[in-house]
Amino acid sequence: MARIESRVRDLAEDPEMREAIELVLERAEDGEIQWVDVRGDISSGQWGRLIERGILEDGQSGFALADREAIEAGLEPKEGTDGAGGGGDIPEVPDSEGASWSKWDKGAAAVTVLFFIGYSYGPVRDVIGGGMDVVLGPLQDSLPLYAVIMVIATLTGLYSTLLRANLMDMDRMAAYQNRMKDIQGRMKEAKNRGDDDAVDRIQEEQMDAMGDQLGMFKEQFRPMVWIMVFTIPFFLWLYWKVGFRGASGDPSAEFADVVLPIWGQVAWTDNLLIMPTWIIWYFLCSMAFTQIIQKGLNIQMSPSTS
């Protein structure tokens, strides 16, 4: 357990804590120890720090060593040091270069930019809207607009969930977050014990870890690009069909008004708050169906950190 070794190494920078850890190792029979076994030889504060940092955890008859081998390794000098306060290890994380985008990701980003132009440039909107109408037109002819938007929201929620689950490396994200948590924890402890040298060293580690933020951003934004590639055409079709901000809408299409709580009967192009009715309805449906899909498929959208 590299994390236990790192925590022990950090605590062992304090000579008194090193002695306390060595004493606990010596007196832990069958991997377990009680406070009465070391009371009088170490302080209650030192005992509490061992529990707080996870060196000791709940056992059957007292407290158990989290990992004897890792604790012993944490007391050993690091390679390339003289053994005098070599500084704590930090959890290893994949190189941020591993999060770089492929040519397909970059191509999807370029297509997304082109699609965004369609929001304000009529010819692009007409081409994309007309193409999407080949598929969505028959659906719109057979269903009311609110049902069509519900279908679109369900589709976008489904592929958004699947794209995020498959394109985002949760292990990498968890590694980034674990590293930052570890650095923050060691920084807090170093400040509490007034160890200025350790604070300076950990601050340097924080600067080195800034590259992790770029890696996290790449991991988070990569699936968003692909989601927008598939989602923007649906929105452009709605712009083209219903009409909004420069798009007059399809003159042959007729949409019945909808009755909503609070607002009553409104047209789909009427503004509710700052957006037209159809956009508000889409967002409400999308949020609801996305949650249902994630629960139904048992897909976790956030990394699990230890």
Give structural notes.
With 306 residues, this protein is mainly alpha-helical. It has two domains: 78 residues, Orthogonal Bundle (Arc Repressor Mutant, subunit A); 161 residues, no CATH class. The protein is 63% helix and 6% strand. The protein is built from twelve helices and seven strands. The chain has a three-stranded antiparallel β-sheet. β4 and β5 form a beta hairpin. α1 packs across α5, α2 runs antiparallel to α5 and α9 packs antiparallel against α10. It is elongated and about 90 Å long.
Query: How many domain modules?
Result: 2
Radius of gyration: 29 Å
Low-confidence stretches: 80-90
Helix content: 55-70%
- Counting DSSP E segments of at least 2 residues, the number of strands comes to 7
Strand content: 5-15%
Major sheet: order of its strands? 1-3-2
Class of secondary structure makeup: mainly alpha
Discrete helix count: 12
Shape descriptor:
elongated
Mean pLDDT across all amino acids: 79
What is the chain-wise order of helices and strands?
HHEHHEEHHHHHHHEEEEH
The largest sheet, given as strand count, sense and whether it forms a barrel, is: 3 strands, antiparallel
Distance between the termini: 12 Å
